[in-house]
Write a structure and sequence with these properties.
The protein is an alpha+beta fold. Among the domains are: 196 residues, Alpha/Beta hydrolase fold, catalytic domain (Rossmann fold, 3-Layer(aba) Sandwich); 174 residues, Galactose-binding domain-like (Jelly Rolls), CATH 2.60.120; 190 residues, Rossmann fold (3-Layer(aba) Sandwich); 64 residues, Alpha-Beta Plaits (2-Layer Sandwich), CATH 3.30.70.870. Helices cover 28% and strands 25% of the residues. The longest helix is centred in the first third of the chain and has 19 residues. InterPro entries: AAA+_ATPase, AB_hydrolase_fold, ABC_transporter-like_ATP-bd, ABC_transporter-like_CS, Galactose-bd-like_sf, P-loop_NTPase, Xaa-Pro-like_dom, Xaa-Pro_dipept_C. Belongs to the ABC transporter superfamily.
């Protein structure tokens, strides 16, 4: 296999993970949700297909109480099985949910038409016809069911096209999808967008562009892989393949094209060979693009797009938003930290799942339905910008905060997006295009974001192939939310130029970050060949969500090559300079909220260590090490793995999250950290891990003061705020990748022990995208246990586990502590804390309100467990006890429990004995939940 073919095969695997998993695995299905599998015929003649479908019907949906329906469409390379967890989640919420494998995928027959209105969109209408015949589906009229459509990427485009062609669709929620497939695969971010005032408006060039070679190859590879699966017995082979082999030419063509239609196959072959956008290729891509039919969409639209996406950038969602809102249709825009290049954290994806459900609740449920919720509005949400690269394929996810604005700036009658102008400078510079485009700059690897770049040190720019223009150091931080613009002067001896523009964040030490690993391709024609009279070009840089810190500089880089794109074969030299010394960057004001989080402390540490070891972060890390304050070591540090002493965390707005918190954890203990919402426990854990700094007080780990970059933190293992796993890699490869990023020797990982402890079995070698939520949880816990850390910190470790798995996890944690190590568990499952932990710290309103063993906390109230020699005496014992002042008693699963109120235990016991009732046990007994609620006097824990 040739190198490029091998890379294409590898990246095809990457794509299947990147496109199929937007939403997290849902909780186990409710017992009253039933499924109905059916083959549904669609189309006619040679284009007739059989669609493999599954319908999820909640028990609450009946002919007397019909429910609205949702059709879920899968991503490219997926099938109805990819949607099972999300379908069950929506069914649990009361929707009738229909999933299916699109033609050419899974066990559905037919060939892939790339969401062609004549085929895939018509199939969607056929499925809606089926829903219109069901009595348990809410109907707006004859043949018109109340229905919404959602999907990611391939499925997202289908929801847009479906709403344009079928006005029975009442609401849609397209995610990480395209506006123009032509502009997405042949982008050229030059010129202006007529009338656009939005933050991420990006030119959607239709007649020329730079071929996105690697991503296009992945698409085609996925379709071809479908054929191989069919031949192996997983699905139906395409009709044009002659099984008997009587027509070798036809069979060869089928193997070459996979499950694609012939016209799509021909368009791909032509594009791959020439790298040029021809009218024939454009015709194929344009008919599968929502761009031309947005004016038909009347269904309220929730647009979800990822900030880490080199396939369908934020500009694609911006164009969809503008086109749909122009009709007066309600549009809400949500950006999130993730995309085709990087899976979002579990908390981010759970937040997105709730957003989609809330959208359908409002627009699909009847107005008098108590589950309808509140109007989700037409606002704008985006991750709070950070100065991190945000692309590390799981190394760096978005921050734990979301910014909420009242509206997407400039979308309707609102004021245009705010822009800040910075001065950039630099002379006109010659840049070389090498023969054959080799060597080429490396910025991103499709499906892996900047992970490939991170592992090799940094984005690779080839000397002599780029021009650079920089700003002065920033006096204050600037949060760029959207697409910056700059005007360039370009000359070319051939009259044409292929260039790639990007915006780097340059630190005071010279370290560089390319936000989200994104570049803006420029396909220029009619370029002047006269250096004294260059052609001025308006360039829209990639739309990003990034904070440039004070003291940093913005650097505009214009290069001649990028390994992800098709490049000119001939060598030439361009001239590139600034037409104006202005760099315009968009900003958005909003309210910051703590909602979905992401990166764990080790994620950030691993990224820093990996990048430092590979070259470009070493100076920064060394500087921090030299400045680090040396603290005295507590003499009892080895016996007290964790100590909080008078720790307070106050913010600039005077909010005090943690106040004078003091407690300690001894070696071998399993400590449960409990508290209601806003108690401060998450803030406490973040201070422990060095992510934020206490305002006052001291935190020590094994006697050493903890803080950002403290060496002692290497003795701590953590599973906090999501798994952060790469779905396309196996569980074992995820563990290896994480450990390699720490820079520690492989033999110190104790990987086999961690895998065995977590009970992963043979599944450890399967791709994570095939895991249940519980299995992902186990891998993340195994990851935290790598190196067998002396202090293990776990946040909600039993989420997604079934009862036997929870029991096994309980034993794992107890056994781990019995080796002399220490475990801290934060959980809302109070019964699990009671059965797992030896000690508890209860927090409320930022303060510690109780600490002790579980037995001490449970036994502090006035409840007793009464054991009788004869259970037949229970009713008489209850009568005796309830006859005492303020006493209540009842039979429970634990036995006879009496709440004594103000009555003393001795008085109650004496009353039973006096009544002639034989008492074998009379001990203080309260469940931890009862004790917790009595202590804090508040609602549920977080």
């Amino acid at each position: 296999m040739r190198p490029r073919s091998a890379l294409g095969a590898l990246l095809a695997v990457v794509l299947s993970g990147a496109l199929l998993v937007l939403l997290p695995a849902a909780p186990a299905a409710a017992a009253d949700v039933r499924t109905e599998d059916a083959g549904v015929p669609s189309g006619s003649g040679a284009d007739a297909v059989q669609l493999d479908t599954t319908l999820y019907v909640p028990g609450s949906a009946t002919a007397q109480h019909p429910a609205p329906a949702v059709v879920l469409a899968h991503g490219f390379g997926g099938s109805k099985e990819s949607l099972a967890d999300d379908a069950r989640d929506l069914a649990d919420r009361g929707f009738v949910v229909l999933t299916y494998s699109a033609r050419g995928f899974g066990r559905s027959t037919g060939q892939i038409g790339l969401d062609d209105p004549r085929f895939e969109v018509a199939d969607l209408s056929t499925l809606i016809d089926r829903l219109a015949k069901r009595a348990d589906v809410l109907q707006d009229g004859p043949g018109d069911p109340r229905v919404g459509v959602a999907g990611a990427s391939y499925g997202g485009a289908l929801s847009l096209l479906g709403a344009a062609y079928d006005d029975r669709i009442d609401a849609i929620a397209p995610q990480i999808t395209w506006n123009s497939l032509t502009a997405a695969l042949f982008p050229s971010q030059t010129g202006t967008v007529d009338g656009a005032r939005t933050v991420a408006a990006t030119p959607q060039t239709q007649d020329s562009g730079v071929y996105k070679r690697l991503w296009a190859g992945i698409f085609f590879g996925e379709g071809s892989a479908g054929l191989l699966g069919a031949l192996a017995g997983d699905g139906a082979a395409p009709a044009q393949l002659d099984p008997a082999g009587t027509d070798p030419a036809q069979a060869q063509q089928a193997l070459l094209c996979g499950r694609f239609r012939a016209d799509i196959c021909a368009a791909y072959q032509q594009a791959a060979a020439s790298g040029a956008l021809t009218p024939e290729i454009a015709a194929v891509l344009d008919r599968s693009s929502p761009a031309g039919v947005l004016d038909r969409i009347a269904a309220p639209t929730l647009l979800v797009q990822g900030t880490q996406d080199s396939l369908f950038g934020l500009g694609q969602a911006d164009a969809n938003a503008r086109g749909i809102a122009a009709n007066g249709t309600p549009v809400k825009v949500v950006w999130y930290a993730g995309g085709h290049d990087s899976a979002a954290s579990d908390r981010v994806t759970a937040h997105l799942r709730d957003q989609v459900a809330a959208w359908f609740d409002w627009y699909l449920r009847p107005k008098n339905d108590p589950d309808r919720g509140t109007d989700p509005g037409t606002g704008f949400e985006f991750p709070s910008p950070t100065g991190l690269g945000g692309t590390g394929g799981g190394f760096v996810q978005g921050g734990s905060q979301t910014v909420v604005a009242a509206a997407y700036p400039g979308l309707t009658g609102d004021a245009p997006a705010r822009r800040t102008t910075l001065r950039v400078s630099g002379p006109t510079q010659p840049v070389v295009t090498p023969a054959g485009g080799t060597p080429a700059a490396i910025t991103t690897v499709p499906g892996l974001g900047a992970l490939g770049s991170a592992l090799s040190g940094q984005s690779v720019e080839i000397p002599g192939q780029f021009a650079a223009f920089g700003s002065a150091p920033l006096r204050s931080a600037i949060e760029v939310v959207g697409a910056p613009t700059v005007d360039l002067d370009v000359t070319s001896p051939t009259g044409r130029a292929t260039l790639f523009a990007k915006l780097y964040d340059v630190g005071p030490d010279g370290s560089t970050t390319l936000p989200s690993g994104l570049v803006a391709p420029l396909a220029l024609t009619d370029v002047s060949d006269d250096p004294s009279a260059p052609t001025t070009v308006r360039v829209t840089l990639p739309a990003i969500d990034h904070r440039f810190e004070a003291g940093h500089t913005m650097r505009v880089v214009v290069s001649t090559t990028d390994q992800a794109f098709a490049l000119p074969a001939e060598a030439t030299i361009y001239g590139v300079g600034l037409a104006r010394a202005d760099l315009s960057v968009p900003t958005v004001a909003g309210t910051t909220q703590d909602t979905a989080g992401s990166g764990r402390w080790w994620v950030l540490l691993a990224a820093a260590v990996a990048l430092g070891l590979l070259g470009y972060g070493a100076a920064l890390l060394w500087g921090r090490r030299r400045r680090r304050r040396i603290s005295a070591v507590d003499p009892d540090g080895e016996d007290v793995p964790l100590r909080f002493e008078g720790v307070t965390k106050a913010y600039k707005d005077k909010f005090v999250a943690v106040r004078d918190l003091s407690f300690e954890v001894r070696r071998g203990q399993v400590l449960g950290l409990l508290g209601p919402n806003g108690a401060g426990k998450t803030t406490s854990l973040r201070m422990l891990m060095g992510l934020i700094t206490p305002t006052a007080g001291r935190i020590t780990v094994f006697g050493h003061e903890a803080g950002a970059g403290a060496p002692v933190l290497s003795r701590l293992g953590s599973f906090v705020e999501g798994t952060g796993l790469q779905p396309h890699l196996s569980g074992r490869d995820n563990l290896r990748l994480y450990w390699a990023a720490t820079g520690r020797p492989a033999e110190d990982a104790h990987m086999d022990e961690a895998i065995e402890v977590a009970g992963l079995g043979k599944a450890i070698d399967r791709p994570v995208r095939r895991y249940s939520q519980g299995m992902r949880q186990r891998v993340a816990i195994a990851q935290a246990m790598l190196g067998l850390p002396d202090l293990l910190v776990l946040d909600e470790p039993t989420n997604g586990l079934d009862p036997p798995q929870i029991h096994a996890m309980r034993e794992v944690l107890r056994s781990y502590a019995q080796t002399g190590r220490t475990v801290i568990v934060s959980s809302h499952l109070l019964a699990e804390i009671e059965q797992t932990c030896t000690h508890v710290v209860v927090m409320a309103r930022g303060q510690k309100i109780a600490q002790g063993t579980v037995e001490e906390i449970v036994g502090t109230g006035g409840a007793v467990l009464v054991g009788l020699a004869d259970d037949a005496e229970s009713e008489r014992a209850i009568a005796v006890l309830t006859g005492l002042p303020d006493v209540t008693a009842e039979r429970t699963d634990d036995g006879l429990v009496a709440e004594l109120g103000g009555t003393g235990r001795a008085v109650a016991l004496h009353a039973l004995v006096e009544a002639g009732i034989a008492v074998e046990q009379f001990t203080p007994r309260r469940r931890l939940e009862d004790a917790f609620l009595a202590l804090v006097g508040e609602g549920p824990v977080q």
